Automatic annotation (TrEMBL):
Species of origin: Paenimyroides tangerinum
Protein name: OmpW family protein
Any one GO BP annotation for this protein: transmembrane transport
Keyword set, alphabetical order: Signal
Signal peptide: 1-20
Length: 229
């Protein structure tokens, strides 16, 4: 949590510094935008799994996402992204010879839902008031909450640790008129978590906790419609 707070302070400080350089008398822009996007969440996963080894496979999913953007100037903005995704998870090529199974097995770990609110500071390029395309870039902080974990029954359960991460962003708004626009957006989250698998059922009820360091690093590709006011 301390890292999250420090990162938010840094983002706000950078934004304030840039804003101070903008023309404060410029008011030819609308301060709020709201977007509804459909987003493909594509994990770029890898793992370091203790005891049984192997890799990890995390399913790709498609979700609705809502975001709000506030413009401090016509170029500088902050965006809050809200959405939640569900993923199926399994290990790949794990060695289970210790419990009488083959040396390369995929272990179904069930599913988990992710709630990753993300705040980014953005720079919006402003070619002209009447420009059709208005691209932007951004960077910020994400805090992912893992919840509604459901075991497949192969293992007793799985625990995920909530984590903060950094986010990068690029996209563009395509104006249909002064208020309504189409949006295309790409984000990359540098997200990793600590996972503990309770596999005691595989050893006759004796304690067997399998630790893992998992990098999820999802690529989020979104397309949607927005309204500015």
């Amino acid at each position: 949590m301390k890292k999250v707070i420090l990162s938010l302070v840094a983002i706000l400080s950078i934004s304030t510094s840039i804003i101070a350089q903008e023309n404060s008398n410029n008011t030819d822009y609308k301060k709020w935008q709201v977007r509804l996007r459909g987003v493909g969440v594509i994990p770029n996963e890898s793992a370091n799994i203790g005891i049984i080894g192997g890799g990890v496979d995390i399913s790709t999913t498609f979700i609705p996402e809502l975001d709000f953007t506030y413009f401090f100037t016509k170029n500088i903005a902050a965006e809050l992204i809200l959405g939640t995704s569900k993923h199926n998870v399994k290990t790949t090529g794990s060695n289970l010879t210790a419990v009488g199974l083959p040396p390369s097995v995929d272990v179904d770990l069930g599913s988990v839902m992710l709630l990753p609110p993300t705040l980014t500071a953005q720079y919006h390029f402003f070619p002209s008031q009447d420009a059709f395309a208005k691209p932007y870039v951004g960077a910020g902080i994400n805090y992912t909450i893992f919840y509604n974990v459901k075991s497949s029954g192969v293992v007793n359960g799985v625990e995920y640790k909530n984590k903060a991460s950094f986010a990068l962003q690029a996209g563009s708004d395509f104006n249909l008129n002064d208020d309504i626009f189409i949006n295309v957006d790409i984000k990359y989250l540098f997200l990793k978590t600590d996972v503990t698998v309770d596999a005691s059922n595989l050893v006759g009820g004796n304690t067997l906790d399998i630790p893992a360091e998992v990098k999820i690093n999802p690529l989020l590709i979104g397309v949607g419609v927005g309204y500015r006011f």
